[in-house]
Amino acid sequence: MNQSSHSILMYPSAGRPAHYEKLQEEHEVAVLGVPHGPAPVTTTVINMPSEISVPDHVVWSLFNTLFMNFCCLGFIAFAYSIKSRDRKMVGDITGAQAFASTAKCLNIWALIFNILLTIGSIVVFIIFSAVIFQAVSQKMKNLEGF
């Protein structure tokens, strides 16, 4: 195989003017053009069902799992959230909504218990601190009396 035939096979536009391909495209457009004749223009409308957004509450469940996981409610809510996400990925919207609703309910209860535990811990700390302070001040008064 000589050099000239090799260049023709490798580069099919070799030897043609540079604007040849552009002219060829313009010719194809001119030949195809717009439809000739009084053909009616019809349109088709396709209604695509919008994807229903089902919140799976995974982040909320993970937060409740990691911080003050009262009676494992956060972990159980996390499991239901993952089940909801799996159902949503499969396309079972009804199942996803059911699992998401259960996860939301468990997250709400976990949050309520977490808030009550936090408030209770603060109250116990304040009362314990007051009792300790009172005991220490009573000891100091007793020591001054000697």
Automatic annotation (TrEMBL):
Keyword terms: Membrane, Transmembrane, Transmembrane helix
Annotated transmembrane regions: 58-80, 108-136
Subcellular location: Membrane
One BP annotation, GO: response to interferon-beta
Main location: membrane
A GO cellular-component term linked to this record: plasma membrane
Similarity remark: Belongs to the CD225/Dispanin family.
Name of the featured protein: Interferon-induced transmembrane protein 3
Provenance organism: Sciurus carolinensis (Eastern gray squirrel)
